[in-house]
Amino acid sequence: MKTIFILNGSNLNLLGTRQPEIYGTTTLADIETACADHVAGTGFTVDFRQSNAEHALVDWVQEARHAAAAIIINPAAFTHSSVALLDALNTFEGPVVEVHLSNIHKREAFRHHSYVSLRADTVIAGAGHSGYLYALLQVTAMLGAAR
Ligand code: CA2
Fold first, then answer.
1. Structural domains in the chain?
2. For residues 122 and 98, what is the distance between their CA atoms, to the nearest angstrom?
3. Residues facing 51 on adjacent strands
4. What is the mean pLDDT of residues 111-124?
5. For residues 81 and 109, what is the distance between their CA atoms, to the nearest angstrom?
6. Residues of 70-104 as b/e, b for ≥16 C-beta within 10 angstroms?
């Protein structure tokens, strides 16, 4: 069984409770369930996590070097600020897919730059919560799965 880490950054624990016009009404727990259902029976498992702390995400990326075949990450605000997260991702050898619920390029100028995109193999933005499922399709394809 190969593990895919799905890492979520700051404030994403609030999904479904605030700003539904931007982020939708689906909760992070709903997304976790959909991701687990999506990989059921494929030989992959997902390890889904969220933190408001930059260092936790850095620690999890370091852990992934030994514990995960791929990383899907929505770094949230750390996307636009964290060289530490980029440095950690640069030590990971498997596929990395960056996901954003919103289209960051359609929003404020400060969201247009992503440090994480300097490492990501694929970037998905603006697909809402479905972006996580598209990311799973992409990493399983990159890892050579049937779907
Ligand atoms: O579109 C995305 O997924 C973002 O990564 C979300 C981040 C934002 O800083 C990025 O520019 C784009 C913000 C996540 C905050 O999530 C909330 C959810 C509900 C209510 C308030 C915040």
1. 2-142 (3.40.50.9100)
2. 6
3. none
4. 98
5. 13
6. bbbbbbbebbbebeebbebbeebebbbbbbbbbeb
Query: Residue 71 has what pLDDT?
Result: 98
Structure tokens at 34: 């959909």
Kindly state if the Cβ of 18 falls inside 6 Å of ligand 1. Answer: yes
Residue 147 has pLDDT above 60, yes or no: no
Closest residue to atom 19 of ligand 1, CA basis: 15
**Given this model, what pLDDT does residue 145 score?**
58
CB within 8 Å of 86: residues ≥ 6 apart: 115, 116, 118, 119
Q: How far apart are CA 96 and CA 19, in angstroms?
A: 28
9 CA to middle of ligand 1, Å?
Answer: 9
Two tokens, residue 124: 């998905």
* CA–CA dist 61, 88 (Å, integer): 6
pLDDT at residue 2 in the model: 96
Atom 13, ligand 1: residue with shortest CA distance: 76
Q: Locate all alpha helices (DSSP H) within 49-142, ordered by sequence.
A: 54-67, 83-89, 130-142
Alpha-carbon distance of 118 to 85, in angstroms, equals: 11
